[in-house]
Amino acid sequence: MNQLINPVAYAEINLAAVRHNLAKVRSHAPQAKIMAVVKANAYGHGLLRIAQALGDADAFAVARLDEGLRLRQAGIKHRIVVLQGFTDANELRQLIDYQMETIVHSSHQVDLLEGGEADYILPVWLKIDTGMNRLGFKAKDVDSMYRRLKQCRLVNPAINFVTHLASADDTSNVFTAQQIQSFNETLAPYPCTNQGERSIGNSAGILAWQDAISDWVRPGIMLYGISPFSDSTGLDLGLKPVMSLHSRLIAVKPVQKGESVGYGNSWVCHKDTTIGIIAIGYGDGYPRYAKPGTPIVLNGQRVPLVGRVSMDMITVDLAAQVSAKPGDKVTLWGDGLAVEEIARYADTIPYTLVCGITRRVHFRSI
Ligand SMILES: *Cc1c(COP(=O)(O)O)cnc(C)c1O
């Protein structure tokens, strides 16, 4: 096998931090079971390494069937819930073959279930749309769908119920309380003795809305040490960052007052300074729209981004670090520099940053 040269841009994935964050979920919802959300390659952190680190979770949730297949093929034996479920008979067959569980959110799916064969009793999660208006049944349709599912030979009769909150990260928004109330009212006719279980809260629900904690919680972003709220960081919430993105300085050069740096000549030096060139760019998933002033940690100290982010490089002002030299290590986010802060400078949410790391970046677990 080829010996790789030392990778330039790399993401360190701290598995002890993931486990710490899972324990944090447990402390917020001690009575609940935890469906750890590992969709989108575990929010960009690496599906299998994260699933293996989260062996203590009670189940995994993925968005799509193929993500669940990867878990099964890697030998993961946990319950796996497919949040988008299936859209045709072939996908339904695979759900059954790989012993997964499905959200049921449309009558199209119920039609397919009615036509299915019963060699595995498929657990289902009936999704109720309490206001997100994405997937799920409106309250008025729940009863007929529930009855139809109860009649399906291949469906586990202990039907579970789930809903998803639209604005739980906005802690003053009454919409969340209304969604929770609507979920509970819709389900009032179904005694818990039907053995089915219920699930409401994502990370923001778990952290900010006590009533969103029911039989099961579905944390995603908080497992990765990231706050779901715009006014706090994961550290503020007792979480530990899981991904640290690193690269290195590859050149240092003096630039004179009045000269511009980078594409579009958009940033102009207002006094003589030294510019550092770092090997990271949007081709790695560093955000193209990060504004000048976005912090980068170099040799333990912050330096500001200047000029536009290019595909392979960014530029920083080294006025505060004149002794920096090519080869010095850089942190773009993670340990010592919250990804939440970078997201604010790039007018986005931290979810998009961690999900957006590209294949050029090397991953290593620590
Ligand atoms: C992504 C997702 C979650 C997890 O949300 P976070 O905000 O990352 O905690 C939970 N439930 C559903 C249905 C989801 O799609």
Along the chain, the helix and strand elements come as: EHEHHEHEHEHEHEHEHEEEEEEEEEHHE
Radius of gyration over C-alpha positions, nearest whole angstrom:
24 Å
Strand content: 15-25%
Can you tell me the CATH superfamily of the largest domain?
Answer: Alanine racemase
Tell me which CATH architecture of the largest domain applies here. Alpha-Beta Barrel
**Which hetero compounds are present in the coordinates?**
pyridoxal-5'-phosphate
Portion in helices: 25-40%
Domains counted in the coordinates: how many?
2
Structural class by sheet pairing and helices: alpha/beta
Uncertain spans: none
The shape, in one word, is elongated
Sheet with most strands:
8 strands, parallel
Q: Which whole number gives the mean pLDDT? A: 95
Q: What is the number of strand segments?
A: 18
CATH class of the largest domain: Alpha Beta
Question: How many helix segments?
Answer: 11
Labels describing this entry:
single chain; 366 residues; alpha/beta; TIM Barrel; Lyase, Ornithine Decarboxylase, Chain A, domain 1; 2 domains; eight-stranded parallel β-sheet; six-stranded antiparallel beta barrel; 27% helix; 21% strand; elongated; binds pyridoxal-5'-phosphate
Give the SSE layout:
Layout: E1 10-13, H1 15-28, E2 33-37, H2 39-44, H3 47-53, E3 59-62, H4 65-73, E4 79-82, H5 89-97, E5 101-104, H6 107-114, E6 124-127, H7 139-151, E7 160-162, H8 174-187, E8 198-199, H9 203-208, E9 216-217, E10 243-255, E11 260-261, E12 267-268, E13 273-278, E14 295-298, E15 301-306, E16 314-317, E17 329-333, H10 339-345, H11 350-355, E18 362-365
Bound molecules: pyridoxal-5'-phosphate.
